[in-house]
Design brief:
Largest interface: A-B, 50 and 53 residues
Number of strands of chain B: 10
CATH architecture of chain B: Beta Barrel
Strand content of chain A: 35-45%
Largest sheet of chain B: 8 strands, antiparallel, barrel
Radius of gyration of chain A: 28 Å
Distance between the termini of chain A: 50 Å
Distance between the termini of chain B: 36 Å
Structural class of chain A: mainly beta
Strand order of the largest sheet of chain B: 1-2-3-4-5-6-7-10
Radius of gyration of chain B: 22 Å
Shape of chain A: globular
Oligomer: heterodimer
Largest sheet of chain A: 4 strands, antiparallel
Number of helices of chain A: 2
CATH topology of chain B: Porin
Strand order of the largest sheet of chain A: 1-2-3-4
Number of strands of chain A: 40
Chain lengths: 530, 228
C-alpha cells in the first residue's frame, strides 16, 4: 500500500511540474542574429542621414540606430517583409528601400504579399511608405532624384524577364504602380539610367528611363510611362559579333544620348527629336561615330563652340561634334580611362555662364590625373590639358556633398592611400593608411572616414584642416557611419558586426573624435525580441 | 485521470488509517515542535523578461524549510515557517549564453489544522525577499553582463502534510512527513539593464536593456520533512 502511495505522489509531482512549466518563449530568442550577406546582394548595414540601418535578416527586421546626442545611441526595430531580396539606399541617403517577396507560395488570402517598403532614415526612423506588389520580384533600381523606382525579375514558374514595375514615388497605393513589358528580341534588362529632364523638341522637357539590355536600349518616357517604349538596337561589334552597351551618358539640353559599345571603335549617338508621326511623342535619330579606337570612357562636355562628346581612346581624347559627327583628337599625357565633369563643382553658381567645361581625367593604371579645360580655343586644345603626377593610380573619384567643400574630391586608389583633391586650388593632399581602405564621406560633407573592416583602427580627415585623427576602437570595426544626432550634432558610429554574433557599436563625437569619451554599445540584436 | 485517482486513493487511505489510529494516540506528538524540510519548488513565470533566460516558463528551485510550532489549540496549531529556495536557469538569447540565479527567502506564520494526527492541512502567507542575478555572455563586448537586484513580495499558499513515519519510542521521536503545497508567489519587477562588472569589458559600456523581470507566478512545492 505504501509503495503504491509513493508512486502516486511521484506521478502527482510530475504532473504538477509539467502543468506549471507549460508555456514557452517566442522562437525569436532561439534565432541567432544573422547579418545581411553580400552574397545575397545585401549589406549588413546602411548609413543614412540620421540613423544607421542594420539588417537582421533572421528576424526579418532592420535595427535602426539613431543618436539622441553625439555620444549616445538608441535603437528601434522595424519589421521588414518576409523574404527580403533587395535593400538599397536612396541617393540622398534619406530613405532605405526594402524589397521583399512576401510569403511564397501564398496559401491563404491573409498571407503577406510582396512589397516595397520605404524607411525614413532620419533622426527618428520610421516607415514612410509601402507599396504592395502583385507578384514577387527580385531586383530593384532607384532613381537618383527619388521620383521613381523599378522592380523587376523574379523566379516564378514563368518569369517575364522584360516586365518592369514602375513605382511612382510621388503617389501612394496601387495608383503608384504601372507594369510594363518591354518588347524583346531575346535580351533582358541589365542596367537602368534615369535621366534628368531632356529638352525634346516639340514638347516639355521630360525624364526618360534608359534600359540597357543585352543587345539594345529601351527608352521609356517617364512623363507617359504607359505609352509604348522605344527600342533601339545596338550596332554590331567590329568583328560582326553581338555588342552590348558598356556606358550610357546623356546631355539634357540637347536631348542627346551616347552609348559606349563593347567590341567596337564607334560610339553610338542618339538624338531625341520632334515626333515624325502623329502617334509619337518623340523620335530617335541614331548615328555611329568612329573615334579611332575602343573608348575607355565617354562623357558629354561643352566647349566654347558647343556640345561635344569626349571619348577617351588610349593616349588621346577624341571630341565628337554630335550634329556633324566630326571628330577632333587631342593627345593626352597618359592613357586615362576615367572622366568626371567637374565644372559645377568648381563654380556651381556660374556654371551656366562658363565658356566650357572642365573635366578631371584619371585611371586605375596610371599614376597621374589631369584637368581637361575645354574653355580654350578649339585650335589650342593641346594646351588645355594640365597633368599632375600624384604617384598613385586612381580607381574612383568620390564626390563631397554639402555646401562647404563641394570643390573637393576624394581620389580612391587601389592601395593603401587616398587623396583629398581641392579642385579650386588644384592641390592634393595624400593620405596614407596602415591597412586596406574603405572610405565613407560624411553626409554633411565636412569630413571623410577611412577604415579597414575587421581592424580596430579608423580615422577621420576634416576637410577644413585636412588633419587626420586616428582612433582605435576596443573591438574590430566593420563599418563607420557619420550621422546627425537629435540635438543637431554629428555622431560617428563604428559598428562591431565582424563576429556575426551580435550588433555592437562605438559612438563618438564626429566633430571631435576621441575614444577618451566614446561609449560602447552592444546587444542591439536583443532589443524588441518578441 | 489515473493520477487523480491515485491522489484520491492516497488521501482516502490516509484518512482511513488516520481515523483508525486517531482514538488510539494523542494529537500533540504529531504537532511538531520543530520541522526541517527539503524539497523542490516549481514555479511558473509568465513574465516576458524571463524569456531571455529560459526556453520554458518553469523555474525549478531547491527548497529548504524550517518551522517551529509556537502555539497549539486542539487540532489547530500556529507555526513560524521559513524557506530558502534557490534555482538557476540557463539558456541562450539569440545565441548568447544567459543565466539566471534566484535566491528566495520567505518567512512568516503558518496555520495548521490536523484533520487526523498524521495529516494536517496548512495555509501560510510569507513575506518574500528574492535576490536575482541575471547574466548575459556578450560576445561582441567580450564580457559578461549582469543585472543583480533584490525584490520583495509574498508567497500565499496552502497545502497538506502527511506523516509517513513516526518513531514510537526513544527520544527524540523523529517523524517524517511528506508535504505538498501550492500557491502564488508574488515578487516585484526588477530592471534587466545588463552591465559588466566595474573594470570589465570596454570603457563606458552602455547597458543592454532587456526590459524588466518579475518572477511572480503560481508555484508548487513538494518536500520531505523531519519533525520532532
Amino acid at each position: 500500500m505504501r509503495k503504491v502511495g509513493i508512486m502516486t505522489k511521484l506521478a502527482w509531482l510530475m504532473w504538477g511540474t509539467l502543468a506549471l512549466g507549460c508555456g514557452g518563449r517566442p522562437s525569436s530568442w532561439d534565432t541567432p542574429y544573422t547579418p545581411g550577406s553580400s552574397q545575397n546582394g545585401l549589406s549588413s548595414a546602411y548609413g543614412m542621414t540620421g540613423s544607421v540601418a542594420v539588417l537582421d535578416t533572421a528576424l526579418k527586421r532592420v535595427t535602426m540606430l539613431s543618436a539622441p546626442s553625439s555620444l549616445t545611441l538608441t535603437s528601434q526595430s522595424i519589421a521588414l517583409g518576409t523574404g527580403l531580396v533587395a535593400a538599397q539606399l536612396s541617393a540622398d541617403r534619406k530613405t532605405l528601400f526594402a524589397l521583399s517577396r512576401g510569403v511564397q507560395p501564398q496559401r491563404t488570402p491573409n498571407d503577406e504579399r510582396p512589397q516595397l517598403l520605404l524607411i525614413d532614415g532620419g533622426t527618428t526612423p520610421k516607415i514612410s511608405r509601402s507599396y504592395t506588389l502583385t507578384e514577387p520580384m527580385d531586383q530593384l533600381a532607384l532613381d537618383p532624384q527619388n521620383e521613381w523606382a523599378v522592380v523587376y525579375s523574379g523566379d516564378g514558374v514563368v518569369v517575364n524577364l522584360n516586365e518592369l514595375v514602375l513605382v511612382n514615388l510621388a503617389k501612394t497605393g496601387a495608383d503608384a504602380l504601372s507594369s510594363k513589358t518591354l518588347l524583346s528580341f531575346g535580351g533582358s534588362p541589365r542596367r537602368f539610367t534615369f535621366t534628368a529632364p531632356l529638352s525634346v523638341p516639340g514638347g516639355d522637357p521630360r525624364r526618360f528611363l534608359i534600359v540597357e539590355r543585352d543587345s539594345d536600349l529601351v527608352l521609356i518616357d517617364l512623363a507617359a510611362p504607359d505609352r509604348e517604349a522605344v527600342t533601339v538596337p545596338l550596332p554590331s561589334a567590329d568583328n560582326g559579333g553581338t555588342a552590348s552597351s558598356a556606358q550610357v551618358v546623356y546631355d539634357a539640353d540637347s536631348a542627346s544620348i551616347a552609348v559606349r559599345v563593347t567590341g567596337t571603335t564607334s560610339v553610338y549617338m542618339l538624338q531625341l527629336t520632334a515626333p515624325a508621326r502623329s502617334d509619337q511623342d518623340f523620335s530617335v535619330v541614331t548615328n555611329l561615330v568612329d573615334v579611332g579606337g575602343q573608348p575607355a570612357a565617354i562623357d558629354f562636355v561643352h566647349n566654347s563652340q558647343g556640345l561635344r562628346l569626349v571619348a577617351l581612346v588610349q593616349n588621346s581624347a577624341v571630341l565628337v561634334e554630335p550634329d556633324t559627327a566630326t571628330t577632333q583628337s587631342v593627345q593626352m599625357p597618359a592613357a586615362f580611362s576615367g572622366i568626371r565633369r567637374i565644372t559645377n563643382d568648381l563654380n556651381p553658381a556660374a556654371a551656366a555662364a562658363t565658356d566650357g567645361d572642365v573635366a578631371l581625367l584619371y585611371g586605375p593604371n596610371i599614376p597621374k590625373i589631369a584637368y581637361f579645360n575645354l574653355s580654350g580655343a578649339p585650335g589650342a586644345l593641346f594646351r588645355s590639358i594640365e597633368a599632375y603626377d600624384i604617384g598613385v593610380s586612381v580607381k574612383n573619384v568620390i564626390d563631397v556633398p554639402g555646401e562647404h567643400y563641394f570643390d573637393h574630391k576624394i581620389l580612391e586608389t587601389p592601395n593603401q592611400q587616398f587623396y583629398v583633391l581641392d579642385l579650386s586650388t588644384r592641390e592634393s593632399a595624400p593620405m596614407k593608411t596602415n591597412a586596406g581602405l574603405t572610405l565613407e564621406v560624411a553626409p554633411d560633407g565636412e569630413r571623410v572616414w577611412a577604415y579597414n573592416p575587421g581592424q580596430t583602427g579608423f580615422a577621420s580627415v576634416d576637410f577644413a584642416s585636412l588633419h587626420p585623427v586616428s582612433v582605435i576602437a576596443e573591438r574590430p570595426v566593420s563599418n563607420v557611419f557619420d550621422i546627425q544626432s537629435n540635438d543637431g550634432q554629428r555622431a560617428a558610429v563604428a559598428l562591431h558586426l565582424s563576429g556575426g554574433s551580435g550588433i555592437g557599436a562605438t559612438v563618438l563625437d564626429a566633430s571631435a573624435p576621441s575614444t577618451a569619451y566614446a561609449h560602447f554599445y552592444s546587444g542591439f540584436e536583443l532589443g524588441g525580441v518578441k | 485521470m489515473s493520477t487523480r485517482f491515485g491522489l484520491c486513493s492516497v488521501l482516502v487511505s490516509a484518512v482511513w488509517f488516520g481515523a483508525a489510529s486517531a482514538h488510539a494516540e494523542p494529537l500533540a506528538p504529531h504537532q511538531p515542535y520543530a520541522q526541517a524540510s527539503l524539497g523542490v519548488r516549481v514555479g511558473k513565470v509568465g513574465d516576458d523578461g524571463y524569456d531571455a533566460f529560459s526556453s520554458s516558463d518553469e523555474l525549478t528551485q531547491f527548497s529548504l524549510g524550517l518551522s517551529s510550532t509556537v502555539y497549539r489549540h486542539q487540532r489547530f496549531s500556529l507555526a513560524a515557517a521559513g524557506f530558502w529556495d534557490y534555482g538557476q536557469k540557463s539558456s541562450t538569447a539569440r545565441g548568447e549564453q544567459t543565466e539566471l540565479d534566484v535566491h528566495r527567502l520567505t518567512i512568516g506564520p503558518e496555520l495548521r489544522y490536523h484533520l487526523l494526527p498524521p495529516l494536517y492541512f496548512f495555509v501560510h502567507a510569507l513575506p518574500a525577499f528574492a535576490h536575482s542575478s541575471a547574466s548575459l555572455q556578450d560576445s561582441v563586448a567580450q564580457v559578461t553582463r549582469y543585472a543583480r537586484h533584490w525584490s520583495y513580495g509574498v508567497d500565499v499558499a496552502g497545502g497538506a502534510a502527511y506523516e509517513v513515519y513516526g518513531a514510537q519510542t526513544g527520544w527524540p521521536k523523529p517523524r517524517i512527513w511528506i508535504i505538498a503545497e501550492g500557491g502564488y508567489g508574488y515578487l516585484g519587477s526588477t530592471s534587466l539593464e545588463m552591465l559588466p562588472d566595474a573594470g570589465q569589458g570596454p570603457q563606458r559600456p552602455a547597458a543592454v536593456d532587456l526590459g524588466s523581470l518579475s518572477l511572480a507566478g503560481p508555484y508548487f512545492r513538494a518536500s520531505a520533512a523531519v519533525g520532532f
